[in-house]
Amino acid sequence: MKAGGNNSDISLVIFLGQMANLGYTQPPERFIMAELMKAGKHLYAKVHSLNVPQSIGDLDTHNAVDLDIYWVEESTPLKIANTYELGSPKYEAMKKHGDAIWLVRSGPDLKSRKDETLLEGINQLQMGDRLKFFRKPVEDNPWAIEVWTDDRKFFLGYMNSDYSRMLGHMLDAGKHVYGEVITSKHGDAAYKVYYDFDVFVEDQ
Prior knowledge:
By secondary structure, the protein is α+β, with helices and mostly antiparallel strands. It has helices at residues 29-38, 89-97, 110-113, 119-122, 164-172; strands at residues 2-3, 11-20, 42-50, 65-73, 100-106, 130-135, 145-149, 155-158, 177-185, 194-202. The chain has five helices and ten strands.
């Protein structure tokens, strides 16, 4: 959906998902939302539905209000100097990645950590390697996100599902969401190997 009267203020509105809330937004979505807002991005919410009982004693504060969350992707360029303290790890990471916003640190889901067929690919990983993400629903997770090496040679399993719904909406909207390997442990069995990664979204 486009908004704006001329080319200088054109914005893209991206639906980030729906959450139940009364008061503070609930984890884990709030962490991604916080990073977007710290980077100067405009987020807003619309009430999707109300679930308010007649008796206050029956009120479920975690499910009283369903909110639709949106990100207005404005054409204003990211200014990391005004977002993170100079020299801080996030400042340095975002400076290295140019027009990209650090969102969260994640890793493979539990099933992937037990999958012996992924050993070859994980054993190739080095700190700083880029990772590609693709949303591919599976039977037990309609928002599952596949993790691949940057050259798509090795499938590395599925991302932890804590953040897959909101990141999936970004991928569906055409955003370039990618990863960078932070930790990489090699071995000859699934329980001996491990990797995690920072997740970025390009601010374009």
